[in-house]
Amino acid sequence: MDALVECLTEGEAALERGEYSRAAAAFTRALEAAPRESAIALMLANAHRLAGNTIASRAVLLTAFHTSLPGDPKQRYGLGAALLDAGASEEAAECFAMVVKALPTDPAALAALAGAKRALGRAAEAWPLIQRALVSSTTHPAHLLTAAQIRHDMGDRKGALRWLDMADTVRRGHPPTLLQRAYTTLLGGATAEGWRLFESRPRPVPQTSARPWTGEMLTGSSILVTAEQGVGDQFQFLRFLRTLEDRSPSRIVVECHSDAVSLLAYNGIDAIARGNPPETDWHVPLLSVPHVLQLGDDVLGGTVPYLNAPTGVAAPALSAPAPGERRLGLVWAGNPAFAGRVTRDLDPALLPTLLAIPDVSWVSLQQGTIDAATQERLAGVHQLPPLRDWATTAALLAQLDGLVTTDTGIAHLAGAMGVRTWVMLQHVPDWRWGLTGESTPWYPSMTLVRPKASRDWGSVVAKVVELVGAGL
Q1: Pairing with 58, which of 28, 78, 109, 284 sits 20 to 30 Å away (CA)?
Q2: Listed residue (206, 354, 197) closest to 282, CA to CA
Q3: Residue 319 domain flag
Q4: Do 274 and 174 reside in the same domain of the chain?
């Protein structure tokens, strides 16, 4: 017991010092001494999360879910909340369902279960749960926000905005509520109001003396543009750099994901890896540029392509397709650390249907570990070694006749390059894709493939087979 207390004390002290990896090591030893204590698992998972290791955090929580003692409702609720944050939505929903069973009228438990159902893409199941929660918490701002998010995920933009109005009356100026309003507004298309609301997101601020840029002429001045969020956002919003050039800056520096530096540099962009920004006169987050420039609904689709594949990059060699065949890339899953992958990733069981499209030579651009069952489904598919960076990926895309992918970063790279792309979307997708239509003003070379209902990947694959098979 003394050793356990010593490990916990060491871990807590390391957390306070910001030494997250050391804290994780101490909590790991503590959990080895008391493997069924979910409270210790939560501490370890939090240390991994703070250290930036989302996958390790999720693994610890999943083990706790399967092995820890049932505990009281409060403990189950805490484990469920951590699982939900880590992207383990199915297990989170089971935790919250246990809490609701024990406390059937508790509004917090009902709202939590509704949130987990929403994360699973089961908004229709989530809606009656949040309604029950609101019976006894009619003015609870967090529950009103959850109601708005669920209506958003049901494709009901007007309903979502009404619930956001109610949330605003009890908690004005709340950034997450404003951000949800931005998502719901932008889901209907890019607008000046949507971009204004989007400024409520957490925005990067460089540790330099640069001033925030608010649209002034930049004649003779330097500006730092900070890429933010995922790599797909980075590729999507790079188009707006051209509008900055019209302000006559002496230098535009883009602080971007480190594995994209070489690709951007090849395309004439003064790019540096995130984490060590240079001194400049001004700074602006990349995703703020359309707001600062008051572009409204102009997403500069006419600038596509604005990224080109570098020449001379040692990309993996591809064998020539047979006569009459098209060579298409395939990606069915996104970043495993991304919490929303549950609803964005294609069910691998549907891959054989895609791969049966005639006269197609498939190339897998899927990165990361592929499980044995999925490997069996990939018979005849050209599989590549891990790709070093996005320049290599771009060089590969340039060798293909097209790409079939889910909503991932590579979809945005392909779109930015003007590569023929079919994107398989979830029922209510990310705001940038809108709710209807097969085309998008962001990328003229892209076809959006939508399901007929929530979690209906079968209809998506069937439509891809039809479109690709017909050469469309």
Answers
A1: 109
A2: 206
A3: no
A4: no
